[in-house]
Amino acid sequence: MSRFTDALNEQIAYEFGASQQYIAIAVHYDAQTLPQLAAHFYRQAVEERNHAMIMVQYLLDSDENVVIPAVEAPQVAFGDVVEPVRLALDQEKRVTGQIQQLAVTAREEGDLVAEQFTHWFLSEQREEVASMSSLLDVVSRSQSDVMRVEDFLARETVGDAGVDASAPPAAGGAL
């Protein structure tokens, strides 16, 4: 197995972990009867899961071994309405660094196909960080009246809502 394959299998774990964290955030907001925030993070959870499945499909198509990992339990308790979004932004920034390292690893190995595969994820991460930064701004400004955040999310599309026709194919299709 190449270093890129090992790193991509590791990234699958990070993507599934991110999905679980977003489910925990969504459930937190759902329990507070904040349906727009909950729906936003439920969609984010599906998007991260699909990122993992895109990576799985790439490894299958490359005739490489796929490792389906255990993931660390997500954080489930939060001190205020802002903390989950701040955690999500930190997570997106961390994933961006991980994807950048995947691209570097592919380049160092001279695997142009693998490097090209990472380019979609790099663009996706730019969008993820930007949209989560915007949401953090809105939540921070409106933390004393969280219904303003709900109104904002009801009328604005934050991010791509997990729909991107240019995305590589995911294992199992778009489930």
Q: Would you write up a description of this structure?
A:
- 69% of the residues lie in helices and 0% in strands.
- It is mainly alpha-helical and 175 residues long.
- The protein has one domain: Up-down Bundle (Ferritin).
- α1 packs antiparallel against α3.
For the record, the CATH class is Mainly Alpha
| Gyration radius, in Å | 17 Å
Helix tally equals: 5
Number of strands: 0
| Structural class by secondary-structure content | mainly alpha
Instruction: Give the termini separation.
Output: 29 Å
Structure summarized in a few sentences:
With 175 residues, this protein is mostly helical. The protein contains five helices and no strands.
Write the layout of secondary structure elements.
Layout (H helix, E strand, L loop, with lengths): L2 H29 L3 H27 L21 H26 L3 H30 L5 H9 L20
Q: Main attributes?
A:
Ferritin, 175 residues, single chain, 5 helices, 69% helix
